[in-house]
Amino acid sequence: MQASPLANFQATVEQLETSGSQLDGIPVDLEESIRFAGARLTQAAGVLLRLPQEVIAQAIILFTRFWIGPEGGSLAEFGAAHISAGSLYLAAKLSAFPKSARSIVNVYAFLDTIPSTYADLEQLWRENNPEEYYVSPGTYERRRSTLFNMEKQILKVLGFQLQVTLPYTLAITYLQALSAFDDPGATDLAKRTFAHLNSALLSPQLLLLTHQPPTLATAAIYLAAKETNVKLPGVDWWTIFDTDREELGFLVVGLLSVETFATAEKAKWADRKVPLTVEEVNAEMDRRQSENAGE
């Protein structure tokens, strides 16, 4: 961990090369699908719980960090849905917007009823109040116990290193420093910048674990300015924010690739549910083995 208050935990090369899941035989493509779906699940649950995006982002980062490296959690042992719930519960507890175990359990129980991972949730959200979703007393007690256990497991795997510095505030500061708010398109520029930072949370390249907030904010501004035709200083302004051209280019490509990855995942899973429990992962592994045996 770097000393700077703007520095986040960064994954090492060794942690990026393998994971606890891969060591337990989980294919890389399945792990990526589950990690992506789990991050989306965390986002959806956070929205339903009316949590600020900053809290949701912290939860997604904790969720993602849990799985990386050979010492990270394995999908053969922990369900991604449980770790998602534990991460959101923990992030909210550490914020000014804590949520009760009952609210967390109810919302995740509601989301579990949705027939496919990539279903359109907006109508379901309008017609239901997930926080009041009914869970029987026995089921609630079991799920609350699981939630508390997952919280402990997350703390253990992360070594209680929960510091998360987000790039959102930095992005606003940088836009002000660049006098971008003097442009008529400033509102669209800010919206697109934040949209790219939110996309980075779902990045298959784990951008928020491999790059620090200043460079992420800089790349999001650069890309958003191109998309909204807002003119920024003609000089290499990104160098002022400690970002070189090579890193900027890598991050721009990474941010742009999230939509492509999401589209491919939606097509891949179609109307099926991405396996987010240990039992579902085992069933998917058995299905793949049967398919391979039949070839």
Automatic annotation (TrEMBL):
<dbReference type="GO" id="GO:0016538">
    <property type="term" value="F:cyclin-dependent protein serine/threonine kinase regulator activity"/>
</dbReference>
<dbReference type="InterPro" id="IPR036915">
    <property type="entry name" value="Cyclin-like_sf"/>
</dbReference>
<dbReference type="GO" id="GO:0006357">
    <property type="term" value="P:regulation of transcription by RNA polymerase II"/>
</dbReference>
<protein>
    <submittedName>
        <fullName>Cyclin-L2</fullName>
    </submittedName>
</protein>
<dbReference type="InterPro" id="IPR043198">
    <property type="entry name" value="Cyclin/Ssn8"/>
</dbReference>
